[in-house]
Known about the structure:
The structure holds two protein chains of two kinds. Chain A is of the alpha+beta class. Helix content of chain A is 46%, strand content 20%. Chain A has twelve helices and nine strands. In chain A, strands 4-5-3-6-7-9-8 form a seven-stranded mixed beta sheet, sandwiched between helices. A two-stranded antiparallel sheet of chain A has the order 1-2. In chain A, helix 2 packs across helix 5 and helix 5 packs antiparallel against helix 6. Chain A is elongated, with a radius of gyration of 24 Å. The termini of chain A are far apart. By secondary structure, chain B is of the alpha/beta class. Chain B is 33% helix and 22% strand. Chain B has eleven helices and 13 strands. In chain B, the strands form two sheets. In chain B, strands 7-8-6-9-10-12-11 form a seven-stranded mixed beta sheet. The longest helix of chain B has 20 residues. The C terminus of chain B is likely disordered. Strand 9 of chain A pairs antiparallel with strand 13 of chain B, so a sheet runs across the interface.
Amino acid sequence: MKVSARLAGLFENALTQAMQVDLMQSIARMVIPNYDIYERSGFPSAIGMPRADAARHILKDFLREGLLLKFVEALIQVTSEGYMGRQVRIALLPRIIAEVEELGYRYSPEKGVFIEAGGGARTMGWGTLREGRTYEFALLRADIAGNSEMVRRYSRSEIAAAYDKVRAMISRLVEKRDGRVWGWEGDGCTAAFYFADKTIQATLCGMEIVHELFVYNLLGRTLPEPVRTRLAVHAGPCRFQMSVKESAGDTLRRAEMLESRYTPPNCLTVSPGVYTDLGSKLAPLFSPIPGPDNSPVYCYSLGWEKK
Amino acid sequence: MKSVVFTDSPRKVLALPYFRARGTQDLETRPRAELKKALPSLEMFPLVYVDVGGMTGAECARIVATISASPRVRFCILDPAGNVSDVAALFHAGAVDYLGKRTVTARPSAKRRSALLSFARRLGKGFSESAPAPILDLSAQGDGWAEIEAGKEHAFAFLFIEVDNAEELKKRHEPENLAAAMATFREFIERVSSQYGGRTWMWSRFGGLVLFPLHERAPFAALCGLRILLSSIFYDCEQSILPGRLSFRMALSVGTTVYHEADTGKIISDAVNSIFHLGRRYTRPAQFVLTSDAYDLVPQALRDYFLPAGTYEGRRIHRMLRPSVGVRGAGG
């Protein structure tokens, strides 16, 4: 992230005017545990460090580590919730937020983080996740069932036209719920959900894809036969990489296995861990079906009353 | 889907007051010489107009014989000069409309368009997106509101929606909580309807009426009903503040009424009365029913999801199958 001289100046002034050095350090530790400004700056701890110097060092450290936005998020948190029972006021904070938004981010109060604003490019990590770190995700796997047979039956252009529509539909529904499609590998994709209610959002997204595909197959399809998908949701820790191929891990592997081995076409399955998060309105819509190791997974599909 | 006019004078035809209001968005023109070649695909057009201006009686008879050989094509004879001597013979041959010298000089009224829809249906040629074109352009959701003028009569599709167990809900919930819950329900209906060109027109505490301006390419009222059914799961899980699922019923019909933006409570309209009767007296909880006129607007592919459901006030009624979720092995 490139920071303008104006944002840097505002950041230093905001900290200098609003808080003592110990509070600056405490807020820094909300982002980097054990952050020690004296150790990092080489300033003798026995002598009180001037506020302006501390602010400058924090700016330099957090810029170098790519964590300046996280620090600003921590500032927003302490101004709204207080710190250890005391109120914190930072007069220049609204101007800092405005400057960050100029860089193409928007602050989401519900999520407590800056994420990419709608108009700009969308990255796999919402502009807020750091590569190489492990986060808790809900992963939605989608795959077009019977792809090999369809590819044999129809021309490349017919397949491309049909799949493009399905891909666009899935991407739209994922992003509508603040998820990110991490990548398409041929006829399948992995989408990630990270923020609050991530398992619910991933599950609702899967259900919406089931419904949307029903309408598409009924009224909008371009091939003589319907396009069918298998969908699965699993949640757990996953190391975040900008390339989904490098993001290998148990959670990703389990999501893929759930989709490919245990999910019937036109259905969404969720793992037992996700099912327990669904709550009293969603859970009854899922039925248990056999899963790995004799344990159930839970399946959702759209059916119709028999004529 | 546009209607098509076979004519050798396209400019003159498009300048006729009858067509001018619709413009080229809803209408395409083709040379008369292409009619024979185009016959196999004509069934998919809402209406096929044949301009017989400048033809002799024999030529006119030949072209009518050609088009009437395809019994499902909805054809109208356009005769701006008023040369056809036996208009009834056109209807005997299967025409659904005749636009003579006087008719073409004015915009079609809502009543006329509605009568045309009913007549075509009686001939077994109800408007639909029929088999040769299974693909419905879902992006072409015309809204048609630009043509609607307050104080004038227009043709609409009327979608009635009402919560089923209102009395039970009143007993179970505080009035303020119930009012807040019903506000979210209205918001949900308005959000989905607006995507299909529908507008909430009348709304009481537990439901109301959504209007869709009616034109030949208007299958969207029925699609909107389908969407509301499918989206209600998401409404229950994400928006509704009531525990459990909210049950509601829907009824769809077609008719005309004078349109007013305010004071809708004072409107006297057979069509409005009729849809309220259908929704409140005939439709059972959680059902979505359609009159046969509205059923004619349902895209062919969606008709498999409807069942005949008796008659009401002399009209045949169709009922949509209920979606059942969470049961394995169905889908599309």
